[in-house]
Amino acid sequence: MKIRIGLIGNQNSGKTTLFNQLTGSNQHVGNFPGVTVEGKTGFIKPGFFKGEEFSGLSIEAELVDLPGIYSLSPYTSEEIVTRDFLTAGHPDAVINILDATNIERNLYLTLQLMEMQIPMVVALNMMDEVRNAGNSIDVQALEKELGIDVVPISASKGEGVSELAQRAAVAATRRKKPGNLDFCEGPVHQAIHSIAHLIDDHAAAAGLPLRFAATKLVEGDKPVLDRLRLNENEQDILGHIVNEMESALDTDREAALADMRYAYIARITKDTVHRHSRTKEQIRSVKIDNILTHRIFAIPIFLGIMALIFYLTFGLVGAALSDWFSMGIDWITGAVDRALYAYGLNPLVHSLIINGIFAGVGSVLSFMPTILVLFFFLAILEDSGYMARVAFVMDTLLRHIGLSGKSFVPMLIGFGCSVPAIMASRTLSSRRDKKLTVFILPFMSCSAKLPVYALFTAAFFPENAAAVMIMLYIGGMIVAVLAALLLRNTIFRGKPVPFVLELPAYRLPSFASMALNIGEKARDFLTRAFTVICAASVVIWFLTTLDIRLNIVSSPENSMLASVGTFLSPVFKPLGFGDWRISTALITGLTAKEAVVSTLAVLMGTGTGVDLQSALTAFISPAAALSFMVFVLLYMPCVAALAVTRREIGRRNAAAAMLFQTGTAWVVAYVVYHIACAVGM
Ligand code: GDP
Ligand code: MG
């Protein structure tokens, strides 16, 4: 028997943790809103379906992890994904997971889900924290009030999970719909019921649950209205009913429904939720927040923490690890080199392997430890709940410059990779905020730019590595902010939409979750090194070994690549790095930013024992190195990011963004170069 179950709940209610428990899979869990952007699916472990109810049944239950939402309105893409799943995805049941330490706010979504008339089970999560605080929830009374099954669980401890799986399967197979829907009163009640009569047949024709459709019309939900195809007459009546309600209550339509839901929630939780104190985690969070989100100290503390992380990553731990790692890589390269000589392989193929593949891939791989160390620290900040605070503090700052604070979440993701960051900008509710954010996101230092910085700082600024890194990271953010200011006052006029960010309680990061996070990063990095970077290195090797007539060249200056690079280099001359090798590296960097490093490695001939760092110092001045890093930081993103940019904001906007970014890069690098020269670098 096949069933399909949707997992729905607020952000940070523990959905992914529960998903992993139920399916045995390893999805990323984070104490940070917006971690799960697209729905993931898995199968509930069959071991859960062992009781009497299931004797003779073999159940195959697909579980869909949906994005975290607070409401079923049509404003954000998360809500739209979830609505589509509920109305068109044919779920047999829904597990609605609630954060029991915050039950009132979480029930707001529950009431809306009940209106969808899909068999449903409520999972009361984080019961361990509720118990530890000496609080309790009368589960049976709550079940009676809601008319649906309620199962207390602790997803992270695995308690109650199998009971939950069984109840969900039973709900799905018996097709028992939520019984109690009449939680409205007064004018709202009248409005909902009058509209329900009015649209009865339309809702059935559109395949929407009646009560859901009626409530959404009261709220003024445009997509639902469109789907119902009311005639003009009916729309008039609808308008009258809503006006009547608004004037009776003296509020607007959306507030009327929100008030009604919260009044109902207050009524049912009054007798079922027994709260003597806030949970330990909440009390602790308030204490910590008094310091970390302090009006004046918050930003200095954040900068201090970042400085410490960069110092540890680039000054202490990461650099040493990377050195050992590159010694290992050199040793392997040397061994393979000797083996190939001994074997007497064709010299050209030999060169392709050593000077192309090994030099290119090896140069990038050597930075893996540094990157993993950095992401290890960032994962601690994220999992503990600190990053959400930073976003909260940034909100005020960003609003001053006309950006929604919500833009900060994609910006943070942009420190990892622009691709998911650009996708995350979908959560911005206004088109203007979204375009603006996509324009400035590539100014963040994504992890692929890190090998470039690391190479150049190690070669040119070994004493001040951490300081240069911080400057680049913060510099990117400052340029992003200035660019936002500029764009807001020219092409993207308008007001940012305010945003309410959920502050999760501080939690100790779990080791498993961190390991998973780092493992994912490592896998991702290795995949890129052995696919994109490897392919780019091979292509570069061919282009430097052959000339336009496909003859083998005596020296790389006569190669095909040199002709192209030489053609472009005048553009970069004013920035201090007019050499053809360097301009070529910027072009291959468009396949993936790490390719800047692998290209330089191939072009400088590291395969033949040349040390890349000393080769570079012989080529350009420190001032030019600085300007080069700034250019790499700011110029247009790689093809993968360009592709999603186009998908999200359209071809013309994407082209504009590309020009804007590259233009900004040129101007800023120019300024940096001349300042650096002026101070004698
Ligand atoms: P999602 O955003 O809904 O997917 O939530 P996650 O699964 O990412 O969990 C959010 C945070 O809550 C993580 O830090 C989890 O470790 C934590 N968490 C999840 N379930 C429980 C639980 O039952 N008890 C406690 N104390 N913490 C939990
Ligand atoms: Mg999640």
Overall description:
By secondary structure, the chain is mainly alpha-helical. Helix content is 64%, strand content 6%. The chain contains 29 helices and eight strands. Helix 3 (103-114) links the parallel strand 4 (93-99) and strand 5. Helix 14 packs antiparallel against helix 25 (595-603), helix 19 crosses helix 29 and helix 28 (639-649) packs across helix 29. The longest helix is centred in the middle third of the chain and has 46 residues, at 298-343. The radius of gyration is 29 Å and the shape is elongated. The termini are far apart. The relative contact order is 0.08. The structure holds guanosine-5'-diphosphate and magnesium ion (MG). Guanosine-5'-diphosphate (GDP) binds next to helix 1 and helix 4. Residues 9, 11-17, 29-31, 35-36, 68, 125-126, 128-129, 154-156, 507, 510 line the site of guanosine-5'-diphosphate.
Key phrases:
binds magnesium ion, 6% strand, single chain, 8 strands, mainly alpha, binds guanosine-5'-diphosphate, two-stranded antiparallel ribbon, six-stranded mixed beta sheet, 681 residues
Question: Summarize this, please?
Answer:
With 681 residues, the protein is mainly alpha-helical. It has helices at 15-23, 77-88, 103-114, 127-132, 139-146, 161-174, 186-206, 210-219, 222-228, 232-249, 253-272, 280-292, 298-343, 347-365, 368-384, 386-400, 408-414, 418-424, 431-440, 450-460, 465-489, 511-545, 560-572, 580-588, 595-603, 612-619, 622-634, 639-649, 651-678; strands spanning 2-9, 40-43, 60-65, 93-99, 120-125, 136-137, 149-152, 273-274. Helix 5 (139-146) runs antiparallel to helix 11 (253-272) and helix 13 (298-343) runs antiparallel to helix 14 (347-365).
